[in-house]
Here is the input.
Amino acid sequence: MTARNLNIDGQRLLSRLKALGEIGALEGGGVCRLALSDEDRLARDLVTSWMRELGLEVRIDRLGNIVGTRPGVEDGPPVMMGSHIDTVRTGGLYDGSLGVLAGLEVVETLNDAGIATRRPIAVAAFTNEEGARFAPDMMGSLVFEGSMSVEEAHAVTAVDDGTTVGENLARIGYEGVAPCGAPALHAFLELHIEQGPVLDEEGLVIGAVEGVQGISWTEVRVAGVSNHAGTTPMRLRHDAGYVAGATIGFVRELASLIGGDQVATVGRIELYPNLVNVVPGSCTFTVDLRNSDEECLREAEQRLHAFLDDLATREGVEITRHALARFVPTRFDEDMVRLIERSAAALGHSARRLSSGAGHDAQIIARACPAAMIFVPSHRGISHNIDEHTEPDHLVAGANVLLGTLLDLAD
Ligand code: GLV
Ligand code: MN
Ligand code: MN
Here is the structure.
C-alpha cells in the first residue's frame, strides 16, 4: 500500500474516543475532566499508555504537556498534531480529545502500513486548554511555546479551591522534567470539532480554518454593602448583585452595538452572601468578549470599562478588574490551509474555509511555526454542553484529512 491510498481505522478511533470519554463521564452524557483533576490524571495515564503502545517516545514537560514522538527517516523538527484532553465542567466527548486521539490514529495507521515519514511526527496533549478552572485558557500551549513562563503558570490558582497549578501538577504526578519554551517544529496541525453552526447548517464535512478570533477575559469584583432586603430603601443600596445583573444586560447590548461577529458573555458569577433576604454585598463575575477584528475588540473592552466606571459611581460600589486572558486574532498559514483543502478534495469531502469562534492550542503554536486547523461539524453548533455531538462519519473524515495533510507536511 502506498501512503497516498491509506485510510485510518475509523472503528479504532471511535473506540478510543469512547474509552477516553468514560473518564469523567457525566450522567446523561458528556464529561467533566477539569484540568489537573483526578479525572485528568486518569485520562493522561490512558493517553500516555496508548502512546507507549504505539512506540512513541513520550516526553512530559514541567507544565505537564505530553508529547509523543515517532522518528522520521531524517532528524529535524517534527510535524506535530495535537489538542487537549481537559474539558469544561459540562463538556462533550470530542472537544480536544478528537485532535489528540486522531493524532494517535494517524500514527497507528502509519505503523500498520510500515510507512516511515521523512520528518519525525509528534502528537501533543496540552495542559489546561479550557481555562475553566485555571486562567488563562491555552495555558499549556502558551508555556510550551514560550509566551508564558512555567513559574507564572505554576502560581495560577484554581477558581474553585484556590490551589495552584503547580500543586495540582505535583498531586497528579504530571509535573515532568522536560523544559518548556521555544520548540523547534516544522508545522502544527489540530483537528477539532467546529463547536459552531456553520458546517452543520451548510451540510459540509470539512472546515479549513483560516484563523481564530481575538479573546478577552476579564474578572470583575464588586464590593458593595450587604444589608437587609426588607428594610433598606432602594435609594440607600450599594448592591453588588445589581451591578452584575446590569452588566449582563449591558454586554448583550454591547454585542449588537459593535456588530459584526462580536460576541459577549457573562459566564461565571458568585454572589455573597447569596441569600434570599440580603442585598448582595459582594460579587465576582467574568466577562468574555470576542471579535475577529482587533480594533473592534478593543472598542468593546473600552466601552465595557466605561460602563463599569459609570455604574460604580451611580451605585456607590467599588469595582476592581483583573485580566484573565487576552489573545489577539490569529491568522493561520495560508499554504497549510490550502493543503487541508487539497487533502479534503482528494478524499471527495465537501469543504469550506471558515474562522474559529473558540480558542485553540493551534492559535498559540502558530507563533512558533506554520499552523492550521481542520474542523468537522458540530450537530446544531452545540458545544461546551453534554449534548455536543459529531457524526461518527465526520469524525473519521476529519481524521483522514488529518492523515493526508500530515503526509504532505512530513514528506
Ligand atoms: C476554549 O474552549 C474557549 O474558546 O473558551
Ligand atoms: Mn477545544
Ligand atoms: Mn473547549
